[in-house]
Structures are given as structure tokens and as C-alpha cells.
Amino acid sequence: MPGYYDISDILMEDEAVSVAFHVGANGVGLLDPGTETNSVEKGAKIDLPFWLAHELCRRRAVSITIPSCFGQKMKKDVQADAACVDLGTRYPYFYEFGCKLFPLVGDKSIGLFLRHTFANRYKEMLSKSHTASLNAIPKFVLRLSKEEYQLFEAARSSMVEFKKWRVRDLGLMKTTIVGHKRKTDLH
Amino acid sequence: MYARRAAQLLQELSSCEEGQLPPYNGDKFDQVIRECEEHSRQFQSLIRDKDIETKNEDHYGSFIHHLSIIRNKRCLMAYMYKRAEVIQSYRWNVGRVLPREIQDKLNFSEQEYFKDYCGVIDSYMKDLDLDLTVDMVPPKDPYIRVRVLSEIGEVSLGDHAVSLTKDSFHFLRRTDAEPFISQVLLHSIILMLNFECVIIF
């Protein structure tokens, strides 16, 4: 579980979600760019950062609409070719966000969708990570989400270590004596 | 407002490479603290003279301000914590004295933190009578071949004295040679082992 100080968790919770307010809220007019008074009306639809939406949803003040990254279009894209979907630029925190969103929204299909996406992308990612060279960054790496990228890096570095191990020094006895060869005096 | 600046601060930190730090962004840090004060003022004005139990609009508004303060606090704490971790790693990877370009990235209290951390490590090592900062990578060999880069002169190592004149080669015990290598006075040529045998002998 990510900790309090985990920076990627904090940044992930900054993702925007669209919410509908069940109640009004005073003094927070800055949240809604369209409002004239310094408050949010009941029934307003606003984009909030996830950390705020999460807490308000727990207290039943808002309801969260499923964001586009788990919507129908995305599902169609994944069905067509999961490995080509660009998570790196559009939704870098795709999996973590989905896991946190899932209990709040009540849409059971998100969990299965996440697993399906990951399973389909994993095969290609695994084969590419084992063959990728250390210096060049293959284009497909830019399409990976943060979590996938960590896996990719782990696989790449373990491949590098394996190659190093394969060509290591085999059995050369290093001399401990340095200096000119001693001529044993036989006489 | 609403922790956007704090998130920018963390973005800056996370966009740096592992083990590196961006310069300390004191301005943004202060701005986030001022935002927290603003949230606190708004919060005070919303809960003044109100019954805490009634869940009306003021209640939710004040709740949102409260959450923003907590969120800002978390971002700032994570910022300081991550920087402190990297500063600690500097002692182990770089050494007791930080080069100029790293020092410029730290603010005053971070430099103090580094000094205190070095002091703690040093007193611990003194109690153990062991230098923990050598051999960070386990060595393959107790002996190491070195070439002297600048004139050091006569040095007594253990039971015998070695004359370290410039550009001379020696075969020393690794623990003896390490302090000189870290001060860039000796150059370890362990990788050229095979070459060495051809050139010298």
C-alpha cells in the first residue's frame, strides 16, 4: 500500500474527476469557474481533484461520474489492440487510479477491465523489455503507464545483469605475488 | 488554491532523476504555506458561531477547506521527506564534503541537516571503530593494483613503508589504498589487470 510520503501516490490523487454535487457548499467558489457567488450550488457538475472527490464521496456529498479513461471508447480501443493504447501520455496512473476509483463508483466492470488491459499489454511489454538495449528508449515505452514502466525497467535491468553475469571472468587465477620472477638459487 | 501549487512542487521533484535534487523552491513553498493560511481564514469564517452538527452548506464548505489544508500539508511533508532522503544518500555516495553545484541546490536548513547527519554517522563509526563508507560494493579481491597520480612520498602502511612517487605502480591491500583513491591521489587500475602484465613484466 502506498505510504503517506509516496510521491507518485500523491500525484496520482491529483487526477481530475467529474463530480455532481448532492449538496451546496459555501465559501468554495474557486472550485467552480462558472459560479458568480462564492459557493457551489447543489446539483452542480464540476471537475475536482481525486483526493477531494474521494473524501466528499465517502460522506455522500457528491457522486463521481466514471471518467473517460474507463468509458466505452477506451474499452473499444483496448478490445482492438491493447498494446497500442497510449497510457503514458494520456493516463499515466491508469491502474492505480482505477483501483482507487473502483470502490467509489460501484461499477463492477472496472476491475475486470483493468485486469484485461494489463494482461493483454503485459505479453508485448515483457518481450520488448528483454530485447531492448540499455541506451535507446523504444518508442513504445512512452505508451506505458507509470506502473508498467517500473516493471519494464525492472525487467531491463535484470536482463542487463544477466548478460553481465554470462560474460564474467571465468576462473582466471589472479596472482597474489607481484614483482619480478624470483630466480630460485639452486646452489 | 486547493493544493494545485503543492502538486506542482512535487512534480518538479519527481521529474528529477533518481538520486538528484532540483534547487530548493523556497518561493513556491512559501506560497503553499500562504494558501494554507488563506484556507484557514476561510474555514474560521465559515464555522464561526455555527452548530457543528448541522450539515448545511457552510459545513461542507469548511470541510473542503479543511481537506485542502491537510492535502497541502501532505504535499509539503512529502517534499521535505524526499529531499532529506536524497541528502542522506549524498553522505554515502558522494562523501563528507559536497561539491559546489550540489550545495547550491540545498537551502540553509538542509545544509545543516547534512552536517548533523554526517556528525551522527561519524560518531557511530567512531564507536564501532570501523569505517562503514568504504567498500560500498563488495570487492572481489583483497588486493588492488594502483598507479600514483600525484606525489605523496613515503607512507607507512601496516608493517612496511611504501614510497608513493608520481606515476609509480603498486600492489596494495584494498583497505590501505581506499582513502587515497577517494581523494583522487591514486588511480585504481584493477580493470586493466591483463594489460598490466604485458606492459610491465
TrEMBL record, chain A:
Keywords: DNA replication, Nucleus. Residues 72-165 form the GINS subunit domain. GO terms for cellular component: GINS complex. The keyword Nucleus applies. It is found in: Nucleus. Belongs to the GINS3/PSF3 family. This is DNA replication complex GINS protein PSF3.
UniProtKB/TrEMBL annotation, chain B:
Its main location: nucleus. Residues 51-128 form the GINS subunit domain. Residues 140-189 form the DNA replication complex GINS protein PSF1 C-terminal domain. GO terms for biological process: DNA strand elongation involved in mitotic DNA replication. It is found in: Nucleus. Gene3D superfamilies: 1.20.58.1030. This is DNA replication complex GINS protein PSF1.
